[in-house]
Write a structure and sequence with these properties.
Blueprint (H helix, E strand, L loop, with lengths): L10 H17 L10 H11 L1 H4 L19 H12 L4 H12 L12 H17 L12 H4 L2 H18 L4 H5 L18 H14 L4 H13 L4 H6 L2 H19 L5 H28 L2 H8 L3 H15 L13 H14 L14 H10 L9 H15 L11 H4 L4 E2 L7 E2 L2 H8 L6 H15 L2 H4 L7 E3 L5 E3 L1 H18 L3 H16 L18 H9 L17 H12 L11
Antiparallel strand pairs: 1-2, 3-4
Helix pairs in contact: 1-2, 1-4, 2-6, 2-8, 4-8, 5-8, 6-8, 8-11, 11-14, 13-14, 13-16, 16-17, 16-26, 17-18, 19-25, 22-25
Length: about 575
């Protein structure tokens, strides 16, 4: 929640920012023992990050480009090193004690900078701590552990850091050629992905603000395959889902309070927490490949679906003070529906689970998909689009990606669809015995040409959700579906051999299977919250919310229908007429 100011920086602003940046970076060079207290550091950090916190000048009358302070690579290199440094719990506690203890020699500062930093730092710290009112999130000892002096500076670092990396170019950073910080993916994980994720989980235990998960998601968006194994190992998704369930319980209690201040705090906390959760889920659900999405959510998928429904009910509860979460209701509903069907929660022996009507309405429009999606033609189109946008090595069994290979990562110059992490994998794939690329490549080129060209094939593939200038979200899925319809019609008109589609389908399936993370197939089941039905009943009772619905459990993925048909065909009665 970085504060945003308007207006252009003056020369004095620039000088003060440079001075504050030098002061700040020198003070935290020893990341275990900063030279100044947290309040002082926060004031200096505020002064040297005014550009990152500023609202862009949108005055349409101005024909001149608006000058801005450039992001200091040195500053952010030191900040991320400070945040991701491996620490023991004892070292972490020692750092927070140091930040909360002021020994700054203000009287010796002739220029008055320290006094100004303290004054500004105190005001900014109070504002930052009003984000989640974290002193209410734990036990009775929380007021001592989650104080302004201990936590505000850390929360502010994560808030502004998230602003800085939110617009980072994934491809430029992976190739180490970005024009702004981070220059490369290693800038974001200076001690490696494992230490980064471990540090984020540790920070959340000591400073439980969900902006940490927000920042983790944005780093994952840029670093992708480098970070995914650590996200899985440390069960990051489990942690944010459990923290959201705690939010639900706390909010359900607080919005019933007669204390207006308490209900206002609850609404504000709810809004910011849901915003951070959705950033995390959007990256996992929409930015990462399907197999990574499955692996990261596996084990907490049912709880994630249930939490989204709880949030849908709470956001529209008449007892909830107004907030901006209402603008995100469709995204919450889409996420709940996606998780439910992706993990086959409609299949026995899973119990029937009530959902918010928005989820049921969306599901009735989107599921089941037409049986044709399993046909070789539709499967071939899906693999062409996926392999073009995934930025992962398509050599069988290779775990590398654009992020791990960097400049060595290249796309096939002939078909422009598949990519390789280097010449070794390219040579291996070209001569692969079962599906050599020298056989697949000309088929891909022909399908692309006959289908309508690359512009049509890759329409709407840059993320499922597009954000317009007003911040409103529009589903780009429809653009993709329209393009797919045109491509399929073009292929039909061109009378392409069905064997070409089958080749691409079988080759794509083999590449996906070799990547390590299995997709959900209905054979796994992780129970959710035992009191889920009770919570939904409470939130929908006596006019508090709409009557819950149930998703159609008879609806099936085409693959499930085909599997059931295969099982039936081996039964002795299959070829016999059944007498009634």
């Amino acid at each position: 929640m970085a504060r945003r100011k308007t207006g252009n920086p003056t020369h004095k602003d620039t000088r003060d920012a440079a001075k504050a940046s030098a002061f700040f970076t020198s003070s935290i060079l020893d990341p275990h023992n900063p030279q100044h207290c947290g309040v002082c550091l926060q004031g200096a950090f505020l002064e040297c990050t005014t550009a990152e916190r500023a609202t862009p000048n949108t005055d349409k009358r101005s024909k001149q480009p608006v000058p801005t302070m450039t992001v200091s690579a040195q500053l952010w290199t030191i900040v991320i090193a400070f945040l991701s440094l491996p620490r023991t719990n004892k070292q972490m506690e020692g750092l927070l004690v140091r930040l909360s203890t002021c020994s700054c020699r203000i009287s010796d500062d002739k220029a008055g900078d320290l006094m100004r930093y303290h004054a500004e730092g105190n005001k900014e710290a109070a504002r930052v701590m009003s984000r989640l009112h974290m002193e209410e999130l734990g036990d009775s000892d929380s007021k001592n552990r989650f104080t302004l002096q201990r936590c505000a500076f850390i929360v502010d670092l994560f808030c502004v850091f998230s602003v800085v990396i939110s617009g980072s170019s994934v491809r430029s950073a992976a190739k180490g050629s970005s024009q702004s910080w981070p220059i490369s993916v290693t800038d974001l994980i200076p001690y490696g992905a494992e230490n980064f994720v471990q540090a984020m989980m540790q920070w959340y235990r000591f400073v439980p603000d969900t902006i940490i998960f927000h920042a983790t998601a944005l780093v994952s968006r840029v670093c992708r395959s480098l970070v995914v194994p650590s996200l899985i190992q440390h069960q990051v998704s489990h942690a944010i889902i459990e923290s959201t369930r705690q939010l639900v319980d706390l909010t359900m209690t607080n919005i019933l309070s007669s204390d207006e201040k308490r209900t206002t705090y609850a609404s504000h906390r709810f809004e910011l927490h849901v915003t951070d959760l959705l950033i995390f889920l959007k990256v996992i659900m929409q930015e990462l490949p399907q197999d990574c999405k499955a692996a990261i959510l596996r084990g907490c998928e049912t709880k994630a679906m249930q939490v989204c429904n709880m949030l849908l009910y709470l956001s529209s509860d008449p007892k909830m003070p107004s907030n901006r979460v209402s603008a995100e209701l469709d995204v919450l509903a889409m996420t709940a529906q996606d998780i439910f069907r992706f993990f086959h929660m409609h299949m026995p022996p899973r119990p029937s689970m009530p959902v918010h009507p928005r989820v049921q309405q969306l599901d009735s429009l989107a599921f089941p998909p037409p049986a044709s999606v399993r046909a070789p033609k539709e499967s071939a189109l899906s693999y062409i689009q996926d392999f073009r946008t995934e930025a992962r090595c398509t050599a069988q069994g290779c775990p590398n990606s654009l992020q791990s290979a960097g400049r060595e990562f290249q796309r096939c110059g002939r078909c422009g669809i598949v990519s390789y992490c280097g010449r070794e994998c390219q040579a291996k794939a070209w001569k692969n015995e079962q599906y050599p690329h020298k056989r697949v490549c000309p088929v891909l080129r022909n399908l692309m040409e006959m289908g309508g060209g690359s512009a049509l094939f890759f329409a709407g593939l840059h993320g499922r959700v597009v954000v317009d200038v007003k911040g409103e979200e529009k589903v780009a899925l429809f653009l993709r579906m329209e393009a797919q319809f045109k491509i399929l019609n073009n292929w039909t008109a061109a009378n392409i051999n069905e064997g070409d589609f089958l080749l691409i389908k079988e080759w794509g399936e083999l590449v996906n299977i070799s990547r390590g993370h299995p997709l959900p197939n209905g054979t796994e089941w992780t129970p959710g919250y035992s009191d889920y039905d009770e919570v939904i009943a409470q939130l929908s009772a006596q006019g508090r919310g709409p009557k819950p619905k149930y998703l159609n459990r008879l609806a099936r993925w085409p693959s499930e229908v085909a599997k059931e048909e295969r099982l039936l065909k081996v039964q002795p009665f299959w070829d016999h007429e059944i007498e009634c």
